[in-house]
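Hi P.,

Sorry for the delay on this. The queue was packed all week, but I finally got your sequence through. Input first:
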Amino acid sequence: MLDGIDIGPGCSVKDSFADLDLAPRGFEALFDATWIWRPPDPVLIPVTWLVVSSSIVEDPTVTVFGGPDGSVVAHLSGDVVGLSNLQGPRASAVAAIAGAFPGRAIVGYEQDLRDAVRLGFEPLGPLRVWQRPMR
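Then the structure:
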Protein backbone atom coordinates (compact mmCIF):
# COMPACT_ATOMS: atom_id res chain seq x y z
CA MET A 1 0.00 0.00 0.00
CA LEU A 2 2.88 2.38 0.68
CA ASP A 3 4.53 1.81 -2.70
CA GLY A 4 4.46 4.92 -4.85
CA ILE A 5 4.19 7.48 -2.05
CA ASP A 6 6.88 9.44 -0.22
CA ILE A 7 7.06 7.82 3.21
CA GLY A 8 9.76 10.14 4.51
CA PRO A 9 9.70 11.92 7.86
CA GLY A 10 6.36 13.60 8.55
CA CYS A 11 4.41 11.40 6.15
CA SER A 12 0.97 10.51 7.51
CA VAL A 13 -1.52 7.82 6.54
CA LYS A 14 -5.20 7.72 7.47
CA ASP A 15 -6.04 4.07 8.16
CA SER A 16 -9.80 4.30 7.60
CA PHE A 17 -10.55 0.96 9.26
CA ALA A 18 -7.75 0.92 11.89
CA ASP A 19 -6.65 -2.46 10.56
CA LEU A 20 -3.09 -1.77 9.34
CA ASP A 21 0.12 -2.26 11.28
CA LEU A 22 2.51 0.33 9.91
CA ALA A 23 4.91 0.19 12.89
CA PRO A 24 7.29 -2.22 11.09
CA ARG A 25 7.61 0.45 8.35
CA GLY A 26 8.66 3.12 10.86
CA PHE A 27 5.26 4.73 11.52
CA GLU A 28 3.80 5.60 14.92
CA ALA A 29 0.10 5.85 15.73
CA LEU A 30 -0.62 9.58 15.88
CA PHE A 31 -4.18 9.11 17.15
CA ASP A 32 -7.16 6.76 17.16
CA ALA A 33 -10.69 7.99 16.56
CA THR A 34 -14.16 6.84 15.59
CA TRP A 35 -16.03 7.56 12.36
CA ILE A 36 -19.35 9.29 13.12
CA TRP A 37 -22.55 9.83 11.14
CA ARG A 38 -25.53 12.09 11.79
CA PRO A 39 -28.70 11.46 9.80
CA PRO A 40 -30.32 14.43 8.10
CA ASP A 41 -32.80 16.25 10.29
CA PRO A 42 -33.74 19.80 11.22
CA VAL A 43 -31.19 22.29 12.48
CA LEU A 44 -30.67 21.95 16.25
CA ILE A 45 -29.89 25.56 17.14
CA PRO A 46 -30.05 28.93 15.41
CA VAL A 47 -27.34 29.27 12.76
CA THR A 48 -24.75 31.87 13.74
CA TRP A 49 -22.00 30.92 11.28
CA LEU A 50 -21.90 32.10 7.68
CA VAL A 51 -20.06 30.96 4.58
CA VAL A 52 -16.75 32.77 4.40
CA SER A 53 -14.58 33.18 1.35
CA SER A 54 -11.35 31.27 1.37
CA SER A 55 -8.42 31.92 -0.93
CA ILE A 56 -6.98 28.55 0.12
CA VAL A 57 -9.82 26.37 -1.16
CA GLU A 58 -11.15 26.85 -4.68
CA ASP A 59 -13.01 23.53 -4.87
CA PRO A 60 -16.79 23.94 -5.39
CA THR A 61 -17.45 20.90 -3.17
CA VAL A 62 -15.74 22.59 -0.20
CA THR A 63 -17.44 25.25 1.92
CA VAL A 64 -15.78 27.15 4.77
CA PHE A 65 -18.05 28.47 7.52
CA GLY A 66 -17.05 31.03 10.12
CA GLY A 67 -18.63 32.87 12.98
CA PRO A 68 -17.82 34.81 16.10
CA ASP A 69 -16.84 31.64 17.94
CA GLY A 70 -15.06 29.50 15.35
CA SER A 71 -14.93 27.91 11.93
CA VAL A 72 -15.45 24.59 10.15
CA VAL A 73 -14.88 23.11 6.70
CA ALA A 74 -17.64 21.14 4.97
CA HIS A 75 -16.95 18.84 2.02
CA LEU A 76 -19.96 17.83 -0.10
CA SER A 77 -19.76 14.29 -1.46
CA GLY A 78 -22.97 12.86 -2.89
CA ASP A 79 -25.62 12.56 -0.20
CA VAL A 80 -23.28 13.33 2.71
CA VAL A 81 -21.32 16.32 3.95
CA GLY A 82 -17.98 15.77 5.66
CA LEU A 83 -17.21 17.94 8.67
CA SER A 84 -13.53 18.73 9.29
CA ASN A 85 -11.09 21.28 10.69
CA LEU A 86 -13.52 22.30 13.42
CA GLN A 87 -12.43 25.24 15.54
CA GLY A 88 -15.09 26.14 18.08
CA PRO A 89 -18.38 24.67 19.27
CA ARG A 90 -19.56 21.57 17.43
CA ALA A 91 -23.24 22.56 17.83
CA SER A 92 -22.71 25.78 15.85
CA ALA A 93 -20.82 23.92 13.14
CA VAL A 94 -23.49 21.22 12.82
CA ALA A 95 -26.22 23.86 12.65
CA ALA A 96 -24.40 25.76 9.90
CA ILE A 97 -23.78 22.62 7.84
CA ALA A 98 -27.31 21.22 8.34
CA GLY A 99 -28.79 24.57 7.34
CA ALA A 100 -26.65 24.90 4.23
CA PHE A 101 -27.09 21.28 3.11
CA PRO A 102 -30.61 20.22 4.12
CA GLY A 103 -31.48 16.57 3.61
CA ARG A 104 -27.86 15.37 3.76
CA ALA A 105 -26.21 13.33 6.46
CA ILE A 106 -23.11 14.78 8.17
CA VAL A 107 -20.04 12.57 8.63
CA GLY A 108 -16.66 12.94 10.25
CA TYR A 109 -14.49 11.42 12.93
CA GLU A 110 -13.93 12.18 16.57
CA GLN A 111 -11.67 11.08 19.39
CA ASP A 112 -14.12 11.97 22.18
CA LEU A 113 -17.66 10.95 21.24
CA ARG A 114 -19.59 12.59 24.11
CA ASP A 115 -20.40 15.90 22.40
CA ALA A 116 -21.01 14.28 19.00
CA VAL A 117 -23.46 11.73 20.42
CA ARG A 118 -25.30 14.49 22.28
CA LEU A 119 -25.78 16.22 18.90
CA GLY A 120 -27.25 13.12 17.23
CA PHE A 121 -24.14 11.51 15.75
CA GLU A 122 -23.81 7.75 15.80
CA PRO A 123 -20.46 5.92 15.96
CA LEU A 124 -19.66 3.83 12.88
CA GLY A 125 -16.23 2.30 13.37
CA PRO A 126 -12.58 2.92 14.18
CA LEU A 127 -9.90 4.77 12.29
CA ARG A 128 -6.25 5.47 13.04
CA VAL A 129 -3.84 8.06 11.74
CA TRP A 130 -0.21 6.98 11.44
CA GLN A 131 2.78 9.28 11.06
CA ARG A 132 6.48 8.84 10.36
CA PRO A 133 8.41 10.74 13.07
CA MET A 134 10.18 13.93 12.00
CA ARG A 135 13.47 12.84 13.59
